[in-house]
Amino acid sequence: MAVSVGIIGATGYVGEELVRILCQHPDVTEIITASRDFAGLTLDEVFPYLRGYAELEILDMDRVPELIDRSDVVFLALPHGVSAPVARAVIKQDKKVIDIAADFRLPERELYEKWYKAPHGAPELLAEAVYGLPELFRRDISEAKVVANPGCYPTSALLALAPLLKNSLVDLTSLIIDSKSGVSGAGRALALGSHFCECEGNTKAYGVGTHRHTPEIAYYAGVLAGS
Fold first, then answer.
1. Rounded to the nearest 10 degrees, what angle do helices 109-116 and 214-225 cross at?
2. Domain range annotation of the chain
3. For 1-57, what is each residue's pLDDT tens digit?
4. Is 152 a catalytic residue?
5. Given the residues 23, 152, 197, 199, the one annotated as active site
6. Sheet holding 73-76, edge to edge
7. Which CATH number applies to 3-150?
8. Are 116 and 133 in contact (CB under 8 A)?
9. 223: Cβ contacts below 8 Å, ≥ 6 apart
């Protein structure tokens, strides 16, 4: 099965990793990339280790319609809040979209807007979005037009909890999740807290009680528990 794949936001950490994996996938025949940074260069100029694997032109964001038109499936490696309107454009062309951001992880508009402090950019697509954790929702993912890539902490928590929740072996009100993430999860943007000298050999708690992955874990834990 030959598949043409578009990646919007191809020069961030997630986009870079997608390119690395997909350029070795036997069914992927074409990769089209776009980014607001490095447009006009090729990916191997930005990431020299990809030379020989991904000598692909990086399109400017103005050429996203062209990227969508040439793709069977489009990955959105964009910031939260930016993905949703682009997803709408992909769906209008009857293509499949996989959103790496959080725009389609929560099924309710009000829940998203409460935790992400911004209006949802394409609320009409929430009902058809499928949570993209393949170990748990593989069949639904294969049939979906909109796939929401799970967050890092929810992935670690839900995969560990799934067998316990499905078999009613734990109480939903007494769960404690101790999960760690590397600083690459903060993305490529410069920030003091993710500088090597600040974080090497260190760990810290952040977003305690207010982390945006909280409702994602709670909602899908409830789904797995049948509540």
1. 150
2. 3-150, 153-225
3. 899 999 999 999 999 999 999 999 999 999 999 999 899 999 989 999 888 877 789
4. yes
5. 152
6. 58-59, 28-34, 3-8, 73-76, 96-99, 146-148, 129-131
7. 3.40.50.720
8. no
9. none
